[in-house]
Amino acid sequence: MSTTDEAKSRFSNPFIALKHKNFRYYWIGMCVSLIGTWMQNIAQPWLAYTLTNSPFLLSLIGILQFTPMLLLALFAGVIVDKASKKKILIFTQSASLVITLILAILVWTGKIQYWHILLMATAMGIVNTIDMPSRQALVIELVGKEDLMNGIALNSMAFNLARIIGPAVAGLVMGYVGLAACFFINSISFAAVLASLYLIKLKPAEIKPQNNSDVWEEIKDGLTYIYHKDSLLYTIIILTIVGTFAPNFNVLVPVFAKEVLHQNEAGFGILMSFLGAGSFLGAMFIATLSKSGPKKFIIYGVPFIIAMALIVTGYIDVYLLTGLSLAVTGFFFIMFTSSANSTLQLNSSNEYRGRVMSVYTLVFAGTTPFGNFYAGLFAEHFNARVGFAACGMIIIVLMLLLYMCVWKKRIF
Q: How far apart are CA 249 and CA 372, in angstroms?
């Protein structure tokens, strides 16, 4: 095999999943909606921190937003395996539109209070508990197994392109128009996803009939399925570690920007854009490797790189260098999560995929309250520098413990 042929076998067109018309509709709608989502993701923590001036109260919003996933994700998986994912998403996206519109009106009228943000965050958490596993499990129906990893990577690219554009735009909008505009734009943007969902035409999914009629039995059946497949079990464990303690940026970055770097809204937004830029490049890199499938090194080695990047970020006090360090963190974080997502879906059968992805949602997003609480506690009682370092150190410690516990299995 020539060098050129070998390179072609390893690398693929990073946009190959877009050849599927259904995925194209879905992806374009998501690109539009995610920009609005990231504008709110920037505006909401800034608003909350401005109202409370407390890192801990800021972290409480994340805790309440993701607690429903912790409590209800496994039940959501049973629903996803039984119902049409398209219909589920039409419901969840419509509900998200209404919730964000209410929050926008409260901010615009000047009646917003801290407890309003807590209530709306909880409502969005309940909706996202069903929305996330549905979106994850839908991709394979849009692109098939062959292009699944590329489709997942493209979704990450869309998410992180929005993470670049959304925060930068949000910083400018917050500074010159006002916070309410960010929430209104996000509410309107959900209409783009709804339009794309109506355009999608799916064939009925081929799923084997379920023998269990009891919800608890079906949850237990799904967990047993994961437990007996090492490729699923160890990916889930590592995802739990990284998903809990790495992505606490909404808690740490606004505090770090304000207290350490002495930045305003625009400076905070640009820092988050650096994070998004690195994440986008990480997704692009994974998309070009999608032809050869997920790599074990990324699952088992990259968490250490993420941890070191978090520690380094906490001890930089130069604005540009902080942005570059966040970009590096984002690059490796998306490499890891995209590979973990692909590994779980490619190793799951159709009848269990919804439940497997509900566990993915549980350990990746449902554990966020613990991570937010952990990061917020260190930032509150020490400072944001220590918050970053504490998150990085615990990832290293837990990964080393996992290695020692399963070394005899030689799965690495």
A: 9
Cα separation, 326 vs 330, in Å, equals 6
* Tokens found for residue 129: 């508990």
Model confidence pLDDT, tens digit, residues 169-214 = 887 888 788 888 999 999 999 998 899 999 888 766 554 445 556 7
Return d(Cα 42, Cα 182) in angstroms, integer: 9
| pLDDT tens digits, one per residue of 305-324 | 999 999 999 888 888 999 99
Q: What fold characterizes domain 14-200+214-409? A: Growth Hormone; Chain: A; (1.20.1250)
8 Å CB contact between 250 and 45: yes
Residues lower than pLDDT 70 in the chain: 1-13, 203-213, 290-294, 407-412
What is the sign, positive or negative, of the torsion defined by CA atoms of 134, 140, 143, 148? positive
**What is the maximum span of the chain, computed from C-alpha positions, in angstroms?**
68
Q: What is d(CA 217, CA 75) in angstroms, rounded to the nearest whole number?
A: 11
Sketch the domain layout of the chain as residue ranges: 14-200+214-409
Which string of b and e fits 234-255 if b means at least 16 CB within 10 Å? Answer: bbbebbbbbbbbbbbbbbbbbb
